[in-house]
Each structure stands twice: as structure tokens, then as C-alpha cells.
């Protein structure tokens, strides 16, 4: 049995979850700036974090001292409607938060594999450990772009680099775009705290199973749960 460092924050409503999450993100960023002069926020796509991003964008924080970097990205143009970059710009990097320094994953390389070295070099410039990393989880047990049985998953779980290229097995969850850049497991765990956001009964069941049994190839989120180096706060609402 692996050790775990999980705190479950289960709420009655998404509103209550978003209020606590927003306040706690603000606290982490302010603490990071106070301690080191800069803070690093790693952000995921997905519907769950959007309300907290919108809330944060309206806070008068010293955003020029905050680096916002991506947890994962589809290997598509930065203007593509499915790119997480577009999503982060539309939700978080508005209002006051426009002043943040945004580090993206997609670069001009023809493939994610070929783009890895440049992306890694950019991520190595960030303050480490990151102050806070926001993860989502899919109904297939993926987190970041660590997808079940993906091409590149074994490397992503073991590499000491922060980022890696993944080619997921196509499914309803991945859609057509299976080529991704993502934080590796090492990159995910290179954070003072991880916020794992999940909602609904189906995902709660997936999470509970992943917590019970570490079948990492089938349910990669297990790798984040079955370790005790970094605190994982699991945010759930119906
Ligand atoms: C993707 C999605 C995906 C998403 C999770 C959680 O890149 O395929 O962004 O990873 O983050 O499926 O989604 P929700 O936040 O909508 O639950």
C-alpha cells in the first residue's frame, strides 16, 4: 500500500466549492509572492476551474509577479477553439490578471515530441516548486494529459523532466486531438500543493476507485494520489 497525502474538501454545491477554492488560490499566490517575490500558478482546462479563474481575474493582486503556466495542451494552434491556451486567456487572463506572465506549451515544432525540449526549457525557468497546481480529472481516470494506456505514459510517469509529449488513445474523452504536451508526473508533483477538481457522482466513483487501488496505467490519476510528498486537496461538488 502506498502512502497518501490527501485532504478531501467535499461541498454541497459548486458555489461553495468555488468560494473556498478562489480564496485558497488567492492565499497561495500571496504567500508565494511574500516568500519569494514571485508566485507560480499551474492551470488546467476543463469546466471545473472556470468560475475560480473568473473570480481570480477580478482580484487586484500584483499579477506582474505571477507566472501562470499550463498543465497540459492539445498540440494545436494557439488560436484553435479546443486549445487550453484560448480557454485560459478567456477565463483567467482577463481584468487585473491580464498583467500575469503567461507561459504556454504549444510552440512552432511540428509535433509535441519535437517541441518537448523547448517547452521543458521554458518550464525550467519557472520558480520551483510551483506554488499551486490545479488539476482536473476525466471519467477515464486521466489527469493533466496523462491518459490511460497512452503512448508516452510510461515515460511521463518516470521522467525527471517537467513536461512530456503524450499521444492518447482516441476516445470520447480525448476527442480527435490526441497529441498533447503535459506536465509529467514529476512536474505535477513539483508543487507546494495540488488542487484536484472533480464534480458529479460518476467522477466521484472514479476517484474513489483510483484512491483504493493504484492501477496507474489504467487510471493515471492514481499516481498523483498514491504518494505522500505533496499535499493533494480534492475538491468535489455534486
Ligand atoms: C482535456 C480536458 C480535460 C479536463 C478534464 C476535467 O484537455 O481533455 O481539459 O483534461 O480537464 O476532463 O474536465 P472538467 O473540469 O470539465 O471536469
UniProtKB/TrEMBL annotation:
Pathway(s) this gene product operates in, as recorded in its UniProt entry: Carbohydrate degradation; pentose phosphate pathway; D-ribulose 5-phosphate from D-glucose 6-phosphate (oxidative stage): step 2/3
Residues forming coiled coils: none
Superkingdom of origin: Bacteria
EC number: 3.1.1.31
Stored InterPro entries: 6-phosphogluconolactonase_DevB (IPR005900), 6PGL (IPR039104), Glc/Gal-6P_isomerase (IPR006148), NagB/RpiA_transferase-like (IPR037171)
GO BP, sorted A to Z: carbohydrate metabolic process; pentose-phosphate shunt
Alphabetical UniProt keywords: Hydrolase
GO MF, one example: 6-phosphogluconolactonase activity
Entry keyword annotation includes DNA-binding: no
Glucosamine/galactosamine-6-phosphate isomerase domain residues: 13-229
Catalytic function, reaction form: 6-phospho-D-glucono-1,5-lactone + H2O = 6-phospho-D-gluconate + H(+)
CDD domains in UniProt: 6PGL
Function: Hydrolysis of 6-phosphogluconolactone to 6-phosphogluconate.
Similarity-based family: Belongs to the glucosamine/galactosamine-6-phosphate isomerase family. 6-phosphogluconolactonase subfamily.
NCBIfam families in UniProt: pgl (TIGR01198)
Record's protein name: 6-phosphogluconolactonase
Species name: Pseudoalteromonas tunicata D2
Gene name for this UniProt entry: pgl
Amino acid at each position: 500500500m502506498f502512502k497518501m497525502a490527501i485532504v478531501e474538501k467535499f461541498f454541497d454545491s459548486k458555489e461553495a466549492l468555488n468560494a473556498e477554492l478562489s480564496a485558497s488560490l488567492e492565499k497561495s499566490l500571496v504567500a508565494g509572492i511574500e516568500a519569494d517575490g514571485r508566485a507560480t500558478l499551474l492551470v488546467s482546462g476543463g469546466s471545473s476551474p472556470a468560475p475560480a479563474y473568473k473570480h481570480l481575474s477580478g482580484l487586484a493582486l500584483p499579477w506582474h509577479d505571477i507566472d501562470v503556466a499550463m498543465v497540459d495542451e492539445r498540440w494545436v494552434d494557439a488560436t484553435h477553439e479546443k486549445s487550453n491556451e484560448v480557454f485560459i486567456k478567456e477565463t483567467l487572463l482577463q481584468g487585473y490578471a491580464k498583467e500575469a506572465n503567461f507561459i504556454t506549451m504549444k510552440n512552432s515544432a511540428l509535433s509535441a515530441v519535437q517541441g518537448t525540449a523547448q517547452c521543458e526549457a521554458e518550464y525550467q525557468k519557472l520558480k520551483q516548486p510551483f506554488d499551486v497546481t490545479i488539476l482536473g480529472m476525466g471519467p477515464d481516470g486521466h489527469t493533466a494529459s496523462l491518459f490511460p494506456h497512452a503512448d508516452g505514459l510510461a515515460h511521463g510517469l518516470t521522467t525527471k523532466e517537467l513536461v512530456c509529449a503524450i499521444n492518447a488513445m482516441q476516445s470520447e474523452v480525448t476527442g480527435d486531438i490526441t497529441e498533447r504536451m503535459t506536465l509529467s508526473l514529476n512536474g505535477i508533483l513539483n508543487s507546494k500543493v495540488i488542487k484536484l477538481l472533480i464534480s458529479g457522482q460518476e467522477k466521484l466513483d472514479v476517484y474513489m476507485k483510483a484512491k483504493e487501488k493504484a492501477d496507474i496505467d489504467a487510471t493515471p490519476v492514481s499516481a498523483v494520489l498514491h504518494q505522500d510528498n505533496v499535499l493533494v486537496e480534492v475538491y468535489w461538488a455534486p
